[in-house]
């Protein structure tokens, strides 16, 4: 059997000293204790979607008197099982209760907005004569997701070793601002390469745009099979993850030209290599033609003699 410790405070007026004295009696009473088992409040919820707040408790023999929910100290939901109807709702800005899906152990908020963000507290009370009360709280933030993924700007289609890469990654408007990260060929970029981030706030709702720059000098190891991949990743808590990747080529160095001649080459200094017409340009004569011409000229000279 579990035991509950209850504290009673009595204030006694002393005429002589004119002071309040607090006397505490701790009464050990046999019986059961009301206690909270688990409080589930999502740390983040997406705007225009529903959010489920759960408060699980164990009466442990007690009788339930009420379950109350508060936002930033203001009550918006009350469940009293002996009342008819048992549920009562109090209007609060940004809080819309889905009555059909709410009960003694959970409250469903429909179409949450940025104004729904706040501190939520569940309070459970037992019946007379002790009216035991247990309470727990948690923070929930509503996120406005970006309407577009991250965009990469400022890059070139080709780079070569020694060039400087200067690019920016810009997230879509959101609240809070997206967290940006750069990757080079799948590996996180060195922190020395990063520029920013810069946050720009715009609009009536104060939506935020984040910009993260990347700047570094290209080295040979930045190319993988002639390509370099630059990726930007945007995240917001565990409710948003988007990325954008660009692949750039390394500039190929020009190859040296190679001239090659094939065939039988006449001996160096041979008169058959080239024949120059009088006053004309030098003309290349193939080797086998040169031999024929040389033989013809030799026979002609012998006949003349």
From the alpha carbons, calculate the radius of gyration and give it in angstroms. Answer: 43 Å
Total strand segments: 22
Give the low-confidence spans: 1-30, 255-284, 300-305
The oligomeric state is single chain
Q: Residue-averaged pLDDT, rounded?
A: 80
- Strand sequence of the main sheet, in spatial order? 4-11-10-6-7-8
Q: How would you spell out the order of helices and strands?
A: EEEEEEEEEEEEEEEEEEEEEEH
Biggest β-sheet strands, sense, barrel:
6 strands, mixed
- Percent helix, as a range, is under 10%
Could you please describe the fold and organization of this structure?
The chain has 305 residues and is mainly beta. Helices cover 6% and strands 49% of the residues. It has one helix and 22 strands. The protein has one helix at residues 287-304, and strands at residues 3-14, 19-30, 35-40, 44-46, 51-58, 64-71, 74-79, 87-89, 106-109, 118-126, 133-143, 151-153, 158-159, 164-170, 179-184, 187-188, 194-202, 207-217, 227-236, 240-250, 274-276, 282-284. A six-stranded mixed sheet has the order 4-11-10-6-7-8, with no helix packed on it. A hairpin with a 6-residue loop joins strand 10 (118-126) and strand 11 (133-143). The termini are far apart.
């Amino acid at each position: 059997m579990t035991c509950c410790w209850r504290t009673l405070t009595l204030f006694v007026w002393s005429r002589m000293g004119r002071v309040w004295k607090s006397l505490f009696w701790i009464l050990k009473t046999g019986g059961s204790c009301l206690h909270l088992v688990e409080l589930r409040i999502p740390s983040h919820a997406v705007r225009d979607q529903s959010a489920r707040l759960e408060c699980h408790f164990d009466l442990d023999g007690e009788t339930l008197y009420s379950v109350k929910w508060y936002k930033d100290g203001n009550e918006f939901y009350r469940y009293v099982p002996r009342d008819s109807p048992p549920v009562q709702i109090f209007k609060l800005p940004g809080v819309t209760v889905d009555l059909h899906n709410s009960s003694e152990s959970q409250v469903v908020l429909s179409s949450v907005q940025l104004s729904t963000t706040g501190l939520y507290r569940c309070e459970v009370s037992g019946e007379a004569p002790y009216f035991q009360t247990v309470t727990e709280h948690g923070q929930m933030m509503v996120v406005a997701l970006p309407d577009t993924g991250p965009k990469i700007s400022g890059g070139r289609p080709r780079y070569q070793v020694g060039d400087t890469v200067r690019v920016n990654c810009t997230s879509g408007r959101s609240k809070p601002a997206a967290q940006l990260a750069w990757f080079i060929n799948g590996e996180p970029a060195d922190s020395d390469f990063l520029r920013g981030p810069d946050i720009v706030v715009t609009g009536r709702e104060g939506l935020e745009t984040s910009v993260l720059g990347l700047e570094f000098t290209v080295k040979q190891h930045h190319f993988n099979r002639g390509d370099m991949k630059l990726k930007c990743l945007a995240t917001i808590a565990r409710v948003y993850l988007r990325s954008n990747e660009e692949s750039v080529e390394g500039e190929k160095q020009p190859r040296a030209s190679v001239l090659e001649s094939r065939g039988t080459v006449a001996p160096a200094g041979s008169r058959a290599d080239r024949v120059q017409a009088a006053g004309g340009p030098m003309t290349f004569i193939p080797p086998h033609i040169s031999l024929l011409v040389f033989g013809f000229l030799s026979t002609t000279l012998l006949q003349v003699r």
